[in-house]
Amino acid sequence: MSYKKGKIYIVGLGPGKREYMVPEALEAIEKSEVIIGYKTYIKLVEDLLKNKSVISSGMRKEIDRCKKALEYAKKGNIVSLISSGDAGVYGMAGIMLEILLKEDSNIEAQVIPGVTAANAAAACLGAPLMHDYAVISLSDLLTDWEVIEKRIECAAKGDFIICLYNPKSKGRQKQIEIARKIMLKYKDKDTPVGIVRNAKREGEQIILTTLDKMLENKIDMLTVVVIGNSQTFIKNGKMVTPRGYKV
Ligand code: SAH
Question: Which residues does the UniProt record annotate as the domain Tetrapyrrole methylase (predicted)?
């Protein structure tokens, strides 16, 4: 008797445009019978989903989505659980693996990387991440705000380039203001800042500014904010952090 063994692909879709999705992500979706994801991301790949079972759900349903993926894989289905950007960067990969490991499940899971927002935004801005950088999410939904403040403080003190994810939402307006104040303790007010909205997808907007003026610009949940280190400069519309080469 033969039976089909299920599998879960945890797929990063990249920032949005199809050209920025890795070929293996496309392949995984193609091989899958069941596709599970947040509805906005399902829309990004809708054209690839003909003849597949599609399960889309709203925000904050992450655990339910992973449980569904496991349920379908246990029935012998090949499942793709999709995230935007890289699935392992504030995405679905960790949650899915935690659930599988907790259950001691022998279902095979494979994480397929994607271009994360920081990398997409950096490419839009020039080359701001040429030196050590820290990625910090300002969302205090799952992380205590004191922890976030401490990490901003340490990254700023260490002269890291800082990429802020989830910088500001309707319900979270103050966090970015506090983050800026902490950074100003260690970083010059003229430190270059790049604000990229919808990087590498429809509606892309790129703003070059400074730490002093950054809050004068629109910042929301579709935005990544990149704050330079002490060496970062802006010239001819490009934000660059030197690596140290004598050019
Ligand atoms: N897994 C995703 C990140 C999810 S957290 C990734 O790797 O990119 C969601 C946050 O990511 C958003 O609030 C925003 O700060 C950022 N983001 C995701 N895609 C983006 C894009 N195309 N342009 C700008 N910011 C983006």
Answer: 7-213
